[in-house]
Amino acid sequence: MRIARFAVGDEVGFGLVEADTDSGEEFVARLNGHPLLGDIKLTGERAKLSDVRLLSPVLPTKVVCIGKNYADHVAEMGGTTGEATEEPVVFLKPSTAVAGPNDPIFLPPVSERVDHEGEMAVVISRPCREVPRERVKDVIFGYTVANDVTARDLQRKDNQWTRAKGFDSFCPIGPWITTGLSIEEAQDLALTTTVDGELRQSGRTSQFIHDIPGMISYITSFMTLLPGDVVLTGTPAGVGPLEPGQEVAVTVERLGTITNRVVTRD
């Protein structure tokens, strides 16, 4: 299933994204309530996907990110694979960094270089802590696409990543949550990032240094994850700068594409 959060006018809801079997046109079938808080039930209402505004599919209490999880990205940042293999590198983005499909990415005036980092993301289904590897599949609701936007110069200047990763709009997520994939399937998906149609990043989730069970088990060894929390799984090589007016698109095979335009604040 593809579960979206969307707005029609001032009304916000959740829905299943479905394609008409005859025309191929896509619709959103409205759900009753929150998909993470009970059984998924259809209301019988539906709208054309083109007539609604897609929002970030969840509003997480926190976004937990794994850094240095692709060897080629570690190398391009001047590191060695060995420094990232023993334990996952973990950092946080605030909930206020979350943006949705087609929302602007705002370039902060204090930074001279803001980079894209396309990633696959995991959405958590239930409160969980100290989850063993073999039970990680039980706490995953689904998967989505994310962009770990980063003020690269501030990341280097601050020597820690909170400010560089935490600006408003620095975590686009969407276009929806895809459920029903096994962990094995999620760990062999193609990932690309384009800027104005030019390919910048290309990798596969099979290149993870730390796999999904390892990430979730490690995070929950010291932190409780809550329903709707999002785990970003790392970015492949090819990160690069964004300029005002550009359009950045991150695509993960079977999960969809999230596109955002880069702007400066007025």
TrEMBL record:
<feature type="domain" description="Fumarylacetoacetase-like C-terminal">
    <location>
        <begin position="62"/>
        <end position="263"/>
    </location>
</feature>
<dbReference type="InterPro" id="IPR011234">
    <property type="entry name" value="Fumarylacetoacetase-like_C"/>
</dbReference>
<protein>
    <submittedName>
        <fullName>2-keto-4-pentenoate hydratase/2-oxohepta-3-ene-1,7-dioic acid hydratase in catechol pathway</fullName>
    </submittedName>
</protein>
<dbReference type="InterPro" id="IPR018833">
    <property type="entry name" value="Rv2993c-like_N"/>
</dbReference>
<dbReference type="Pfam" id="PF10370">
    <property type="entry name" value="Rv2993c-like_N"/>
</dbReference>
<dbReference type="GO" id="GO:0016853">
    <property type="term" value="F:isomerase activity"/>
</dbReference>
<dbReference type="Pfam" id="PF01557">
    <property type="entry name" value="FAA_hydrolase"/>
</dbReference>
<keyword id="KW-0479">Metal-binding</keyword>
<dbReference type="GO" id="GO:0046872">
    <property type="term" value="F:metal ion binding"/>
</dbReference>
<dbReference type="InterPro" id="IPR036663">
    <property type="entry name" value="Fumarylacetoacetase_C_sf"/>
</dbReference>
<dbReference type="GO" id="GO:0019752">
    <property type="term" value="P:carboxylic acid metabolic process"/>
</dbReference>
<feature type="domain" description="Rv2993c-like N-terminal">
    <location>
        <begin position="1"/>
        <end position="57"/>
    </location>
</feature>
<dbReference type="GO" id="GO:0018773">
    <property type="term" value="F:acetylpyruvate hydrolase activity"/>
</dbReference>
